[in-house]
Amino acid sequence: MTRTEYPWLLPSAMADPELPGDQGGRSRRTVRDWIVDITAFLFAAGIGLLAAATIEADRTTSDGVLFVDCLIGVVACCALWVRRRWPVGVAVGLILVSTVEPVASGALLVALFGVAVHRPFRPAAAIGALALVTAPVQPYLRPDPGSSLIESTVVGVLLSLLVLSWGMVVRSRRQLVVTLRERARRAETEAGLRAEQAQRLAREAIAREMHDVLAHRLTLLSVHAGALEFRPDAPPAEVARAAGVIRDSAHEALQDLREIIGVLRSPGESDGDRPQPTLATLDELIAESRLAGMKVTLDSGITDPAAAPAATGRTVYRIAQEGLTNARKHAPGAEVTVMVTGGPGDGLTIEVRNPAPTEPFEQVPGSGQGLIGLTERATLAGGHLDHGPAPDGGFGIRAWLPWSP
Q1: Strands 295-300 and 347-354
Q2: Domain coordinates of the chain in residue numbers?
Q3: How many angstroms separate the CA atoms of 281 and 288, rounded?
Q4: 3-class DSSP state of 385
Q5: Backbone CA torsion sign across 70, 72, 75, 80
Q6: Would you put residue 180 in left (φ > 0), alpha (ψ -120 to 50) or beta?
Q7: CB under 8 Å, gap of 24 or more: what pairs does 58-64 form?
Q8: How far apart are CA 352 and CA 288, in angstroms?
Q9: What local confidence, expressed as pLDDT, does residue 362 receive?
Q10: By the 8 A CB rule, do 47 and 76 touch?
Q11: Between 140 and 341, where is the model more confident?
Q12: Are the CB atoms for 348 and 303 separated by under 8 Å?
């Protein structure tokens, strides 16, 4: 919160967001300001005329005194035109003048209202206390023939309290309006930030999904294209099989990419036309890897893979997919073991291990972001994932994921 956002906190300015003319605000009055000021002037002049008529009716008052009273009343009413710039000074001056001049009473009420509206509680209360203390002075010095001292004092005190209370109510309402506007602006800003954060999280999720999906396909392309490049004398049957794997992997990669783009274009939460992989589709992943020439052993102790939670099964599938992809990159020709155990209540444990490579191969570039994404995915699912080299020179991935009974 800053003082410029909440102008009523400024001690030396008229802190009213709707009434300009303070030291820190606009110098020109609006149409509404002119209407308010003219109305206040006419109100003060009307009260002053009534007071002047009462003084004139008192035959003990001379014409000279009446003339001075009217002149002071005009000056008091004109002083209201500068109350926007100096509300406290004008109010204090009118309080002192009103102690001896009944004609300035109307201008005093308007000045008290302005202080209550445009000043915090403490200065407004101080000005109000000064007005209440001096309320008995004027009827004592210049008593009204039609009322007693007590009656005149009570009326003066009640009018001052009424005007001050009304002004404070108006000030509170204006502060409430300013606060609500500020909250609306803040809520709009926060909504924009939440939307940006949601977009960022969606982009990160899509990036992880693209890596998990496409890395598996593109690795097949790289491995088999490299084999064709470095073994131009391979048998025609092996060349045809490698070319078929390349073609199928390219088609699958394009299909997966279309699904991800479809999710981006879809206004809802659709995941595409094809079902997402689960634990039940792990066999298809193993079969696809074997068809590509990998040696994969699957040891699954899950009797009913379809009963596993969809999110957990999808995470297991992605871990196995990333493990097979890494084995294809860094240990081609080595036999990979995929082991899945567990059940409801115990959770799911998946291990993907491969020994050290036994034959030379061309290193496929990789950044290690896949394992980082898998670790994050497992943590978000409520489990954990460990990976690292084995003592025999191989590599292993082990993860545990919860499975509620």
Answers
A1: unpaired
A2: 7-191, 277-405
A3: 11
A4: strand
A5: negative
A6: alpha
A7: 58/145
A8: 16
A9: 59
A10: no
A11: 341
A12: no
Bridge partners of 300, per DSSP, are 340
User: What pLDDT sits at residue 13?
Assistant: 35
Instruction: Give buried/exposed letters for 359-396 (b at 16+ CB in 10 A, else e).
Output: eebeebeeeeebbebbbebbeebebebebeeeeeebbb
Residue 162's contacts (CB-CB under 8 Å, 6 or more residues apart) are: none
Q: Is the pLDDT of residue 147 over 80?
A: no
pLDDT confidence tier of residue 357, bands split at 50, 70 and 90: confident
Which pLDDT does position 5 carry in this prediction? 39
Tell me the C-alpha distance between 41 and 97, whole Å: 17
Q: What share of the chain in percent tops pLDDT 90? A: 6
- The pLDDT, as a whole number, for residue 356 is 84
Residue partners of 178: CB distance under 8 A and separation at least 6: 6, 8, 17
Strand order in the sheet with 347-354: 295-300, 335-343, 347-354, 395-401, 384-389
What's the predicted TM-score (pTM) here? 0.43
Q: In the predicted model, what is the mean pLDDT of residues 86-95?
A: 86
- Residue 109 in tokens: 């009420």
pLDDT (0 to 100) of residue 360: 62
Residues 6+ apart with CB under 8 A from 334: 295, 327, 354, 355, 356, 357, 358, 394
Q: Is the dihedral of CA 139, 141, 147, 149 positive or negative?
A: positive
Tell me the CATH number for domain 277-405.
3.30.565.10
Per residue in 246-275, pLDDT (tens digit) is 777 777 777 777 666 665 554 444 444 456
3-state secondary structure of 309: coil
Separation of first and last alpha carbons in the chain: 50
pLDDT of residue 71 exceeding 60: yes
Q: Are 321 and 373 in contact (CB under 8 A)?
A: no
Torsion angle of alpha carbons 34, 37, 42, 45, nearest 10°?
A: -140
